[in-house]
Write a structure and sequence with these properties.
The protein is mostly beta strands. It has a domain of about 150 residues. The protein has four helices and 19 strands. A six-stranded antiparallel β-sheet has the order 5-6-3-10-13-8, with no helix packed on it. It has a six-stranded antiparallel β-sheet with strand order 11-12-9-16-19-14. The chain is globular, with a radius of gyration of 19 Å. About 5% of the residues have low confidence.
């Protein structure tokens, strides 16, 4: 499988050249174009339970699988919003935790599950579940998307990394986090900053340069409303 990423980071397109029989799994609606592949739609790993877990993680119930035909083929994928695509290599026994709606595609041996965030997820302003991607039967690759560009930020041992909840894309399984506010109550109400996630450990966090919630708040006053006479 040979990936090519073009037009990043604003309008990124991922093209995967597949050898005969190779399979790539992708979110419904991610396909832009394809040649020499067969597409099937299923519920991902775990059948119905797998589909339900994906929905809890903010993803679609179904997954599309693209399998290269006898002569090989290719498929191009893109996110639903203007943004970036990043790839992650997963070794067996390692996991990548992904914010809801950021998963786009993965190799056939990568499975997804969900992790409940508990009460801290309810207060974070994001989904109360993270999507967990992990590899079975050898190393695998997962592709995630963002709104805006993706930047990798290192979590240093003994230090605390603070990320706005609306800018989180993914994080490695060797960091832990808590949900808190920036400053006091006055900063929370009038400072323009909401809740944040504080990461500790020795790993990596990936952030996006734009925030969908901020865009929605800007557009909201311009949307038509139904008013009764």
């Amino acid at each position: 499988m040979r990936p090519t990423i073009e037009y990043d980071p604003s309008y990124t397109l991922l093209t995967l050249e597949l050898d005969p029989g190779e399979v790539i799994k992708a979110e419904p609606g991610a396909m832009v174009a394809q040649e020499g592949v067969d597409m099937t739609t299923g519920m991902g790993s775990g059948s119905i339970m797998g589909g339900l877990k994906r929905m809890l993680g903010g993803e679609s119930f179904f997954v599309n699988s693209f399998t290269a035909q006898r002569g090989g083929g290719w498929v191009s994928l893109a996110p639903s919003t203007p943004g970036d695509i990043a790839s992650f290599h997963l070794d067996p026994g390692k996991s990548l935790f992904i914010q809801g709606t950021s998963y786009m595609a993965s190799t056939d041996n990568v499975e997804t599950d969900t992790q409940f965030q508990g009460l801290r997820g309810m207060f974070s302003g994001e989904s109360i579940f993270f999507l967990r991607a992990f590899s079975k039967g050898g190393s695998g690759t997962v592709y995630v998307t963002s709104y805006g560009a993706i930047k990798q930020v290192r979590v240093q041992p003994g230090k605390e990394l603070v990320i706005d909840t609306g800018h989180l894309v993914a994080f490695s399984d060797d960091v832990e986090y808590s949900v808190d506010k920036v400053g006091g109550i006055r900063s929370l109400i009038a400072g323009g900053e909401g809740l944040v996630m504080k990461f500790r450990g020795n790993g990596n966090v990936w952030i996006q340069t734009r925030n969908v919630q901020s865009l929605a708040s800007i557009l909201l006053p311009f949307l038509p409303t139904n008013r009764s006479n």
